[in-house]
Write a structure and sequence with these properties.
The protein is 37% helix and 17% strand. By secondary structure, it is an alpha+beta fold. The chain starts with a helix and ends with a helix.
Length: 455
């Protein structure tokens, strides 16, 4: 693989209003792969061509400050190339489900904040949407930026596809949850302070629900947020493996008594198609976006974008166009190198277990010039299986509880079965539902599925 193939690929798939802009995008993406550092000077020095070094650096500078370059066109092209054209995803109920994650992160020692929507591919995440803003101006604009990202996802969702968006606790909002329920599916973690109401409890904090270590509980459809109720499905789990107590000469850390290590997940995934275990595994995939943040921002293990200092957020967004294209190419090159056994040549050790020593990004950077297949072939060979297997396979970092009496419990309940007495008990200080206690029932088939996946 060389700069000519990259430039031809960007000219074919990225329509930025001028062919020269697409050509420059391909040249700078290859230069970033070769340099390994996000900066105008490093990218300009690595550009292949007869131009002088100062001229190439100036080209990168003018590209990132060109007001005619719209980052949304690059984002739309990435969705089309990586998702729409290859037909990626897992087919469930006649629709292709694609896993996406959305999270905030910061650049320039916290001076620049960025919202990132990433495509989850199994071990890493590929950035698809990005929105930058100065951290000092984030107050009052954060919710508007998040809503803009959701509307862009709705606009970019093609027919026959449906997004499965993974969110952290910072995105909790009843209005946003109602909007997401209308257009796609989601899995979102809620904190332990927002009250919920279900068939066996009335407006209580999730920390008061009896979820012990090793349990996976599906509470069915509940009402979330007492001030602005919204109907969602609640799944809870507690899978933290306790560490062995050791004698250490350190100061004991005092943790809050309100601390809870359980996961309380809100989702609109139907229980008939997605059991509780699948919901938990989906949310466990959300942390792959943190790996991509490290690959881009970290100075030792990534591209050192964390220390890039720019004045305008729009300049960050145009620079991120180069970084996003380079990240997608690095993942493809790394997957090709790993499939051909080239990754083992870069590691001095040979572990007994077949685990990955170097990240795909680092392997792809080292073996980019050795790749011979076209990019469209790499997408069909590596990206399609990855986007399908991410729904079924347990990640290599998944820690499974070692308790032998693990049982999956569930309760079947629908909001339309809610009686008037339960509606009346939603008033303040109502201790529990007067409609009676609904016992949790064991689901044997799903319990067997737990042990099969764990094996």
């Amino acid at each position: 693989m060389g700069p000519q193939q990259i430039v031809a690929w960007t000219e074919e798939n990225f329509h930025l209003g001028d062919r020269r802009r697409a050509r420059a995008l391909g040249e700078f993406a290859w230069a970033l792969i070769a340099a390994g550092v996000v900066s105008f000077a490093a990218i300009g020095r690595a550009v292949v061509g007869a131009a002088r070094e100062a001229s190439s650096i100036a080209r990168v500078f003018h590209f990132c400050h060109n007001l005619k370059i719209d980052p949304k066109l690059v984002q739309q092209a990435l969705f089309r190339v990586l998702v729409l054209v290859p037909g990626a995803g897992k087919l469930v109920a006649s629709r292709l489900h694609v896993l996406l994650s959305m999270d905030w992160h910061q650049f320039d020692n916290g001076d620049e904040s960025s919202l990132r929507v990433s495509l989850l591919v199994g071990s890493r995440a590929i950035p698809l949407l990005w929105y930058d803003v100065k951290s000092c101006n984030l107050k009052g604009r954060q919710r508007a930026i998040e809503d803009e990202a959701l509307e862009d996802l709705v606009r970019l969702q093609p027919a026959g596809f449906i997004w499965v968006l993974l969110l952290d606790t910072g995105f909790r909002c009843s209005k946003r949850i109602r909007r997401m329920k209308e257009v796609f599916r989601f899995v979102q973690r809620t904190n332990c302070s927002v009250q919920v109401s279900g068939p066996t409890f009335c407006w209580t904090e999730p920390r008061n629900l009896d979820v012990v270590l090793g349990q996976l509980v599906d509470f069915g459809w509940v009402e979330w947020c007492r001030t602005d109720p919204v109907e969602v499905r609640l799944v809870a789990t507690y899978v933290k493996v306790p560490q062995k107590r050791r004698r250490r000469r350190t100061i004991k850390k005092h943790q809050s008594k309100r601390r809870n290590d359980s996961w309380f997940l809100l989702t609109n995934l139907p229980a008939e198609l997605f059991p509780a275990l699948q919901v938990v595994l989906y949310y466990a995939r959300r942390f792959e976006c943190e790996h991509n943040f490290r690959d881009i921002k970290n100075a030792s293990l990534g591209m050192n974008m964390e220390h890039v200092h720019l004045l305008a957020p729009e300049t960050y967004e145009r620079l991120m166009c180069i970084v996003a294209v380079a990240s997608a190419l690095l993942w493809l090159f790394g997957s090709e190198a790993e499939a051909n056994g080239w990754a083992s040549q870069l590691s001095p050790s040979r572990p007994k277990e077949p685990r990955r020593i170097l990240s795909l990004v680092n392997v792809g950077q080292q073996k980019a010039s050795s790749v011979r297949r076209p990019i469209r072939v790499l997408i069909r060979r590596h990206l399609l299986p990855a986007l399908e297997s991410v729904h079924t396979l347990v990640g290599p970092n998944w820690v499974y509880p070692s308790q032998p009496n693990l049982v999956l419990k569930g309760v079947v309940w629908r909001p339309e079965h809610h009686n008037d007495e339960h509606r009346a008990c939603s008033r303040k200080r109502a201790p529990r539902c007067p409609g009676g206690r609904v016992d949790l029932v064991d689901i044997g088939g799903q319990s067997q599925e737990v042990h099969q996946i764990a094996a």
